[in-house]
Amino acid sequence: MSTHQKDGTITSRVYSRIGLLGNPSDGFQGACLSLSLANFWAEAMTLVFFEHCRQHGISLPPGASNFSLSYTTTIPRQRGLSGSSAIATAALNCLLRHFSLEAAIPPADRPQLVLAAEAELGIAAGLQDRVIQVYGGLVHMDFSAEATSTLGRGRYTSLDPALLPPLWLIYSKAVPPGKDSGRVHASVKQLWLQGDAATREAMQHIARLAQAGRMALDQQKWHVLAALMSRNFQLRRQLYGDAVVGAQNLAMVAAAESVGAAGKLTGSGGAVVALCPEGAEQAERLRAACAVAGFECVPVQVGPALHQASD
User: Fold this and answer.
1) Which end of the chain has fewer surrounding CB within 10 Å, N or C?
2) Is 310 inside any structural domain?
3) Which residues are catalytic?
């Protein structure tokens, strides 16, 4: 939902996201294919504080802020659906509108600004979440050294969300939740920084899956896309190990695989995106398998494209 203003109140809704392919290589000079997930959202709101005080005869000290900022969210915590960055991005949207800075700070510059703000709060993450939550829709992102050295950021390309096949979101309402993304990536990041050959090769392989997925979408080859998603999860599992991936995440992917569907983590853990390349009948079997295992399984609602990226 775009940022809008009514009766002096500015509201911005930002959706959660799904990392379809390439994650977690976005934090390792890789590439990602991500989509906006409209099933869940965070909303920030600025209340015009000055007007309220004026109406109630309250005097403000010099230099006081003339608005207050609040938020609400439906994004489940620590389910790998990018809840914290959705709140931060919605807050930034409100501030940009309030101070009339939307033209001065274009969409391409906003993901880094959100990431920097979250870093000050001790939240460790990559740019993928912030990019898709700024642009919406479906975006391919290239975070290679070549792209970042040329542009000073990643190279972003908006794709037509209509290219996507039906997708399914699998998650559990029960504990245990997903893990903090910073802790999940810490040991692998250290190996990558040290130049560990196996870690670097695996991350490069994961990054290549994003480009291959883009081609599969263009060609509408769902079995190819499903195989890429499965490979993405296998490589992630190889890198991080089952103890880090977690029993619940393994069980959600196993539920998808039990009916021949592909499943992979949407983020750092807590939710899985699944693709049924054989169509509706396979999807019904997926829903039944998830119900037996005690998991929610709902159709993915793709959020609208908010800006067009074409680097």
Assistant:
1) C
2) no
3) 129
